[in-house]
Amino acid sequence: MSQTTGASASASYKSAGVDIEAGDHAVELMKQWVKKATRPEVVGGLGGFAGLFDASALKRYERPLLASATDGVGTKVDIARRMGVYDTIGHDLVAMVMDDIVVCGAEPLFMTDYICVGKLHPERVAAVVKGIAEGCVLAGCALVGGETAEHPGLLGPDEFDVAGAGTGVVEADAVLGADRMRAGDVVIAMASSGLHSNGYSLVRHVLFDRAGWALDREVPELGRTLGEELLEPTKIYSLDCLALLRTAEVHAFSHITGGGLANNLARVVPDGLHATVDRSTWAPGAIFDLVGSLGGVVRPELEKTLNMGVGMMAVVPQQSVDVALSVLADRGVDAWVCGEVRERGEATEAVTLEGDYAV
């Protein structure tokens, strides 16, 4: 006697929630965007099991070091989902990965992505990839492949997440970092475009759970809706940093992400030295004050969670300051001198934030 489950139709991958045909359609939709994010070294096109990159291009290096990084965009994806806007979150992903890579002085080469969804909506996935491809163009790297996975039952039908991994290259004797920093060096800040892609768990808790604000709320201090502010893409500094390296002496970069300004700058300050940053040299954007005031978040907590208006920092010798600021200004990057490097002396921390923010 045969056994049945009580179902009249046989089970299939599609009935379990995974739609292979929708995945194929998504690939077709994203191809036009991936083609735009390429480099001469890319071999082949989208659809293979692996992306190919011609490593013979590295022969011009004496001792090429490959730099790699991987990251996501955290709970900022919830803002994109709630707003139904999917073509900017990819900029955030590229920035989080490639701006980490450029910190050591590496040129971004290529990137891959991973998109996980509860239910595959081809147009949405293609929009995410469009943003990633546009971000890769802004970072000067190629998008050589990726993966889209459908996880029914683990994610809701409209839920998704994104992650990426990137590779760059730097000459061994040109690697930037703590060993190059010297007392007397100057710290240059580069303005962020907003919250970037860190601290959104705190931001969402304060603005949604505590303050009860809606994404379509017009906020005079921001000059736009709350949702538009929260979805502002992370600025991509890769090509700006590489332009600095071509024209000025740079000892270190610091990408200001999770952990805030002081903690990230401390990662490139060596033992024996101490960096001071003067808060009075800039005024953080209105969104930072809103999060602090609406949530009763004390300044130390804000500063170790959010970027407070600074997305990237460069540490340069005094004689390179004017050139560095000029290069950044020509590239449309708002930048200013915010601090200096001294002998450690009696200081107990690698980085100290001093003064009060400008109004």
In short:
31% of the residues lie in helices and 24% in strands. The protein is of the alpha+beta class and 359 residues long.
Instruction: List the secondary-structure elements in sequence, H or E.
Output: HEEEHHEHEEEHEEHHEHEHHEHEE
Q: How would the global form be characterised? A: globular
Which structural class fits the helix and strand makeup? Answer: alpha+beta
Percentage of residues in DSSP E strands: 15-25%
Question: What is the strand tally?
Answer: 14
- Radius of gyration from CA coordinates: 23 Å
Instruction: Determine the mean pLDDT.
Output: 91
**How far is the N terminus from the C terminus?**
82 Å
- Tell me about the largest β-sheet: 6 strands, mixed
- Approximately how much helix is present in the residues? 25-40%
Biggest sheet: strand arrangement = 10-12-7-13-11-14
Low-confidence runs of at least 5 consecutive residues: 1-6
The helix count comes to 11
